[in-house]
Structures are given as structure tokens and as C-alpha cells.
Write a structure and sequence with these properties.
Elements lengths: L1 E6 L3 H12 L4 E7 L2 H10 L4 E4 L8 H9 L6 E6 L4 H10 L3 E4 L4 H12 L4 E2 L1 H13 L3 H11 L4 H11 L4 H8 L3 H14 L5 H10 L4
Parallel strand pairs: 1-2, 1-3, 3-4, 4-5, 5-6
Helix pairs in contact: 2-3, 3-4, 6-11, 8-10, 8-11, 9-10
Organism: Aeromicrobium duanguangcaii
Pfam families: GerE, Response_reg
Protein name: Response regulator transcription factor
Length: 216
């Protein structure tokens, strides 16, 4: 059973999300929070696997709450769910430690699927948000950034390069494993090394580096 904390300052949104998730198999909404401070307190009071986090809230916003939650030992995963798809919010949420980012108009089945993936350790990002972010960042890339990205990518082995390209194309761990004929455990091991070699903290940063290096 995946234990979920729903955080949003709109009580109707909280009620809707809780009702929707309550009907999904193997998911349980264990608490609700109306702002970031309540979310941080709720996580400290009971076991939580995934926090659904709004961004713009009173008292403490979702970005600061995310930063506080993921800093704790054995922290739950934070899945940001917002109406705002501005690039700066994506960057700040990911920098704060969010494991996923979805828009509130995402269909309910996809939200449920995202929660399950994030709980299993697989980052989840809205394809639209990811594409917009990569497009904006790479459009502003300087020659120095492109050269630096190419240098980092050149440190990857042939297999790591294939995995990095698949990450840049938005493939999940399971999809990469199937396409490259390897186990999911092996994919995860490759991804760990890719993060280190590309100095990346998440999959979006890997995709950006691959784009800047001209390898996608």
C-alpha cells in the first residue's frame, strides 16, 4: 500500500484528489495539508511514501516544503502537482528535490500511475513541461555550455550513452530495459553512473546535457 499525503490550499482540490486516489488500488490517502508547514508536520507525524505537493500556498509554499521534507532521513518522494507550468517553477521544484512534476489537468489515471512510479523510485515529469524546459534552456546555451556538455558526454561508455539518449527521449527505466535488452537493475546502475559523469541530479538535467551536446 502506497501512503499518500495530499497538499493543496484549496479544500475542493484536496477533496477531489483524495476521492480520486481513494478509489485506486494499493493507494491510501493518510493525511491532507492546507499549506507547506502542515505538510512538513504531517510527514513527521506518520509514515508517508509520496507527497502530492501544490506550489503556491500560504504560510509556506510548496518549494520550501519540498526542500524541508526531502532533507529528512528516509524522506518520502514529492510529486509536484500544479496549474503552473512556468519553467522557473520547474527548475526550483527540481532543485528543491521534487521527484516528479505534473500539471493539474493531467488525467486521473496518469496521476495514479505517476504516484506509483515515483513511489518505486522512478522520477516522473510531465512531457509537456519537460519539453518546454529543455527547449528554453538549450535555446539559451552558449558555445561554452555546448562544449562543456560535449566533453561530459564523451566520458560515457557506449552503453551509458544509449541509456542517456533513452532518458533524453523520456523513456522509463522499464522501457529502457526492454529496448536495450537489460534488466531494470542494470539500467538503474547505468543511470547512477550517468548522473555522476554528467554531474546531473535528475533526468531532466541529463536530457539537457544530451541536447546541448547535440546527441539527441
Amino acid at each position: 500500500m502506497i501512503r499518500v499525503l495530499v497538499t493543496d490550499d484549496d479544500p475542493l482540490v484536496r477533496a477531489g484528489l483524495s476521492l480520486m486516489l481513494g478509489g485506486a488500488a494499493a493507494l491510501e490517502v493518510v493525511a491532507e495539508a492546507a499549506d507547506g508547514r502542515e505538510a512538513v508536520a504531517a510527514v513527521r507525524e506518520q509514515p508517508v511514501d509520496v507527497v502530492l505537493m501544490d506550489l503556491r500556498m500560504p504560510v509556506m509554499d510548496g518549494i520550501e516544503a519540498t526542500r524541508a521534507i526531502v532533507a529528512a532521513p528516509e524522506a518520502p518522494k514529492v510529486l509536484v502537482l500544479t496549474t503552473f507550468d512556468a519553467d522557473d517553477y520547474v527548475v526550483r521544484a527540481l532543485s528543491a528535490g521534487a521527484a516528479g512534476f505534473l500539471l493539474k489537468d493531467t488525467p486521473p489515471p496518469q496521476i495514479v500511475d505517476a504516484i506509483r512510479k515515483v513511489a518505486g523510485g522512478e522520477p516522473m515529469l510531465s512531457p509537456t513541461v519537460t519539453e518546454n524546459l529543455i527547449r528554453r534552456v538549450t535555446a539559451d546555451s552558449t558555445d561554452t555550455r555546448r562544449t562543456g556538455a560535449a566533453r561530459l558526454v564523451d566520458t560515457l561508455s557506449e552503453r551509458e550513452l544509449e541509456v542517456a539518449q533513452a532518458i533524453g527521449q523520456g523513456r522509463s527505466n522499464a522501457e529502457i530495459a526492454a529496448e536495450l535488452f537489460m534488466s531494470v537493475a542494470t539500467v538503474k546502475a547505468h543511470i547512477s553512473r550517468i548522473f555522476t559523469k554528467l554531474d546531473a541530479g535528475n533526468r531532466v538535467q541529463v536530457a539537457i546535457t544530451m541536447h546541448e551536446a547535440g546527441r539527441l
